[in-house]
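// run 5 | inverse folding | seed 20
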């Protein structure tokens, strides 16, 4: 690493073919021997000596009588902004405070900071680093990035730079990892430049991280994941990017984003029952593995979904189904609809059916605001279950509707205004 720093400093031009590490150094180690403005006036030997002295272990007589703040080994010196790119305090990143000698670091920890540019996603702006207390996953993610960055530095091929959405960095690493992930995954977006220092940390909890990994590894979930990616696509954003952003920022929206795809697969032209089945199965696994919804509660929602599907399957057009879906954004309207249909169900139940339309537990899950998961999430799962059951029943509307775009919004993920459009003439 020291010799890379020497070669970069001697290049003196960030735009040159061999200027990769010199350009990167401004975002990691500003105003150091590697990139100091005064290097233009120094001889090559002077620059070389200065950089090597910067990257050389201080003599033992210079070591302070304190321990490293990160690992408690013997510290070899105090270090500030120019050597510590991930300091979180904005005031500290800009300068070492007056009267403060810096952070006490040992030689291995200091060199870990010097190694940082090799193992992170370099974008030309803020860099992206992954962290996890799962050592096997972190080793995999860093090793892949190190190999790519060293190749890029050697070839200088700017066309192959990895400038995707920052959240996709974590998703790619998870989906290429072969072993279970046992800890949460942090995404650190940072820059140590003098102009725009920053540090943002976004986290994936362990259950979601492992679920995202398993969807690639298990044959039964791969087809559903492909459908989930398609469900997140828009005219301006690739599906994988939108899915990764939802995973980090609002995991609950993953289900609501999948509902329009389910509905489109079921009612649109060229409907595919296998795709509907695969996506519904994937969303069920998300509910239990990520949202930690119990199998018993999911079964309660599924039972209600089967009953609702039995009512809706008598329709010959998709209008009733779409109207039911719009009730997601109107809990009062959905409660009223279920109550009305429940009374009819009790008075004149379908042949061979026992029990109420909606059990007491299902009603609590759908409308109780203090349950473990929010009611709107359970209402989303109800719609998933209804679509899944209609697909199983082989329901096919006589009038094929156009596929609906994802219109998630609000907490429930849908903003459509409720418009009653089903029931008998007396009910209307």
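// decoded
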């Amino acid at each position: 690493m020291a010799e890379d720093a020497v070669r970069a400093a001697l290049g003196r031009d960030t735009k040159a073919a061999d200027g990769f590490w010199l350009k990167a150094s401004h975002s990691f180690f500003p105003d150091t021997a590697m990139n100091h403005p005064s290097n233009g006036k120094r001889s090559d030997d002077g620059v070389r000596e200065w950089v090597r002295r910067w990257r050389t272990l201080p003599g033992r007589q210079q070591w302070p009588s304190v321990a490293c703040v990160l690992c408690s080994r013997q510290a070899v010196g105090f270090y500030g902004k120019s050597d510590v790119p991930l300091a979180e305090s904005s005031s500290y990143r800009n300068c070492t405070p007056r009267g403060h000698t810096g952070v006490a670091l040992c030689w291995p920890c200091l060199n870990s900071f010097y190694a940082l540019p090799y193992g992170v996603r370099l974008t030309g702006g803020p860099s992206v680093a992954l962290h996890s207390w799962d050592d096997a996953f972190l080793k995999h993610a860093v090793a892949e990035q190190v190999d790519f960055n060293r190749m890029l530095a050697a070839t200088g091929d700017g066309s192959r730079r990895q400038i995707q959405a920052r959240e996709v960095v974590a998703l790619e690493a998870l989906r290429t990892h072969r072993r279970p992930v046992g800890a949460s995954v942090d995404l650190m977006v940072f820059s140590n430049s003098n102009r725009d220092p920053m540090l943002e940390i976004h986290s994936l909890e362990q259950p979601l991280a492992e679920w995202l990994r398993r969807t690639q590894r298990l044959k039964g979930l791969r087809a559903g994941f492909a459908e989930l990616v398609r469900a997140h696509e828009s005219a301006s954003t690739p599906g994988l990017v939108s899915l990764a952003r939802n995973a980090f920022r609002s995991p609950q929206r993953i289900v609501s984003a999948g509902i329009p795809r389910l509905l489109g697969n079921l009612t649109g032209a060229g409907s595919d029952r296998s795709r509907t089945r695969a996506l519904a199965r994937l969303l069920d696994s998300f509910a239990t593995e990520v949202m930690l919804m119990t199998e018993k509660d999911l079964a309660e929602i599924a039972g209600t979904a089967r009953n609702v599907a039995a009512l809706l399957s008598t329709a010959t057009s998709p209008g009733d189904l779409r109207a039911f879906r719009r009730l997601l954004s109107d809990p009062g309207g959905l409660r009223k609809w279920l109550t009305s249909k429940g009374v009819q169900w009790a008075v004149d139940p379908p042949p061979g059916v026992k029990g109420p339309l909606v059990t007491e537990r299902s009603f609590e899950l759908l409308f109780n605001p203090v349950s473990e998961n929010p009611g709107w999430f359970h209402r989303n799962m109800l719609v998933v279950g209804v679509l899944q059951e209609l697909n199983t029943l082989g329901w096919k509307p006589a009038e094929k509707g156009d596929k609906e775009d994802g219109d998630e919004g609000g907490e429930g993920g849908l903003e459509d205004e409720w418009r009653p459009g089903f029931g008998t003439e007396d009910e209307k």
